[in-house]
Amino acid sequence: MSSTETFKFVLILLVAILALELIARRFRLPSAAALLAGGIGIAFLPGIPPVSFDPELVLIVFLPPLLQDGAYYTVWSDFRQYLGGILWLAIGAVVFTTLAVGATVHWIVPSLPWAACFALGAVVSPPDAVAAKAVLGKVRLPRRLMVLLEGESLLNDATGLVLFRFAVAAALTGAFSAQEAALSFVGLAAGGIAVGAAVGLVAVQVVRRITHVYLAITAACLSPWAAYIGGESLHVSGVLSVVTTGILLGWYQHDIFPANVRMRATAFWAVMIFLLEALVFILIGFSLRGVVERLGGIGSALDALGVPILAVLAAVILSRFLWIYATDYLRMPLARMVGRKVAPPSPSASFLLSWAGMRGVVTLAIALSLPEQMPGRDLTLAAAFAVILVTVVVQGGTIAPVIRWLKLDRAVHVDTAHLNEGQANRLIDIAQLEAVKARAYDSQGQLVHPRLLEQYTYRVTVAERYAIAPQDFTGGREAHYDVILAAIAAGRAELLRLHRSGQIHDELLHYFERDLDMQEISAENDRQSP
Fold this sequence. Notes:
about 525 residues, mainly alpha
């Protein structure tokens, strides 16, 4: 395709994304599954040109911002608290799955070299951050499970990529050293974290010093690519570089972003991430066409590779169950040996952790990056796509009913370690009242801001009552914000009437409209907050 045709094709894909998202919302389907199925359907439509893409380009375009989006909103205290469990999944489960899949493939296809079998295992072993975010963002889980799944999806790509590179090298050269691989992994991980910390701290200082709104947003949005390219250029883990940068920016964003920058940046970033996530799943669907054509059609592919693919799927799913259940029930005796207390294992939680192993863009990209001379390349490509399809559509599509079946949505406990909304709101209102009191009187002791003093005193009074008995405000609270929203709507209608009748200029329209927008956003957030 020419450049113009490529651009038109991308626009068509964006229109398809809108349609598929609307269909998914209308029928309450998982967005990832709808987009993946839609991509497959569009790819096989008559007249649609074949789409081929460079896997390295896919990684560098899509992976950094999507990884940073997850890292940016990571709760550092939770991440640190459950880091042991996260690493147990991100390293242990990935290594175990790689070995299990490799052994299974060699058993089914004994002519395939061991290194090529383990390379296939490394391709399909790491659950994907994009797929996990797309699915988990719409469910409600106990905090520990959510932190474990999100943290695992951020870190396990580094494990899978290291295993993949060593397995491919061993398959092509016949040489492999477990000690060298372990040392390399430690070096790549430590280097990636160091590069990410450096990029993150530089980004914080740069954004802090930029006063122009759009320049500050642009600088912040460039940081994930800077971290990824910097890490890869220094031959360390670009994935961990991005995750580290994202955590640092997420931690400092409350200090470095003024309110207007944060509101606009959040809106822009949300739209960009939505489009990138959607395009990733569309492209995954499109990749099936290339795999099928390469293997001589669907019938030929199933005849030649159907049994090995089914074996890979079984190994991927069952190995995760085996690892999680085994390690969950080994924690108790191990903890007793070192004198630590841990919560007893929960069969429901273990089942959900085992079931939530969706694969996505990283699996696809590293499968497509296999050298042409790699033994078993066709099997790896077909198995990778089958694993993505089954885990996203079947596991991702059933995650919500599984949570309800396990009754984990009822296990979401009330957080007693932190202040609740009413308690925190009371302390903020008191701090604001003290600031107003200090400035409400002039140097002669005359009250010069009586309305502000009255307003903030009233807010503290209401906040104290709400902190003591929030249930008393439930009905009145909604009615209160209904009146505010009705007033804002009336003001907006009058503003548009004045503009349409030519009584005010566009500049004044935008000024008042921005003020009304901020009032509406604030009222909607307050009305919907718990």
